[in-house]
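Exercise 7. Predict the structure of PD-(D/E)XK nuclease superfamily protein from Zunongwangia atlantica 22II14-10F7.
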Amino acid sequence: MNEFLEIKDLITTVKSRIDSHLKFKKEYDKYLATDFNFFEFFNLGENKISEVLAYFLDAKQSHGQGDLFLKEFLKIFCDSKLEIAQIENTCEKIITEKRRIDIYIEIKGLTIGIENKVWADDQVNQLKDYSRFLDEKSGGNYILFYLNPYGLEPNEKSIDNELKVKLQKQNKLKVLSYKKDIIKLINNWLIICEADNVNNFLKEFKKYLETKFLGKKTLNMSKELRTIIFENQREVQYLVNEYQAIEYDVLNKLNSIGKKLDKIEPSIDSSLTIDKNGVFKWENYHVYKFSLSKAGNMIWIQLVKQDLKLMTNYYLQDGTDVLFKEILNDLGLKSDNEIDPFLPKSEIIELFLSQVNLVNRSFEIYNDKMKK
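Solution. The predicted structure, encoded as tokens:
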């Protein structure tokens, strides 16, 4: 009984410290605005993030720093001391009718391709096709970067394992992460950049990436929490064990729901294509998702487990008409809608399918609008 009281006291202490931290933040935010970031006003999808990175890697752009940013990139990721003679810097480089490299950079003696995978899925033979194009274009002097939030390896459907290993050994394929690589690169850019207005932009961009991919907020209190953990190791271990048990139960429920949803054929417009992705791990999330698509427009509906939370959300595949966002908002479809993970499976399935029905309805409304 005493152990439970000690655990309760520990939780009370941590909660008190966090509440004090948040109170301080609330009082001083009117002067510091610690979480303000103007990027939050814009829908920064993969294409826009690629544009920002390509801009700074372009020696001819208006940032005024010439090839300074590009040299730093080459020094860190290419181990290259090539003379910078930029020939081309292009976003969405078209290589075939259905293939576009997110960032394509050609300098004297080296060609670089960057595939930026922030949210979209790998496509069949995508990296294989990119590597073949870069090899032919450069005479073998190229590096293809696979950039994603946490440095995950590409899916085998994008490039088979044998070719991937071969290219990695030849330093022609490298995996980069926002978490360890790009944020570090921006830190270096901030040191060498001499223009204050450009530095201000880079600081905000870095802050946006840290919030999105690291969950990092300002006024970090991790040192104080670590002290509390160190001084209460036994109680913390009890909490960790119970936390992991609950997390395991929630994951099992998601897996079970995913299997049931795989067998269900929702009632949707026959002209729509439906695609189901069984439960998979993406970064720190476990995800089950549906997509409905027609004529180049695709909407994903997801059931997501993050830590102990279970959420439903949706997103538009790149290239989908943004009018869908307005339609879905009018229909009341919410993103990041948290649900009780202890609800019966049948209720969670019903909730998920109700969102599928809203997306189905959005295509009907969209078609009506296009006819007018």
